[in-house]
Design brief:
about 60 residues, mainly beta, three-stranded antiparallel beta sheet, binds zinc ion
Amino acid sequence: MSATPTASHQCECPECAGSVNFARAPLNGEVVRCGDCGVELEVTNTAPITVTLAPEVEEDWGE
Ligand SMILES: [Zn+2]
């Protein structure tokens, strides 16, 4: 039997509650896209993996 510790990199999408899978351990601040609803999520913590809805970046609003 394979005893390889398969690190499962996944978390729950805060938008649709679907599972978001990462091919590798995500980095803090990384932006990923939910495969279910397509929303962009920003990784705010890596252990455990926590994501929040990424702010919508459209045009540069200027200040
Ligand atoms: Zn989603």
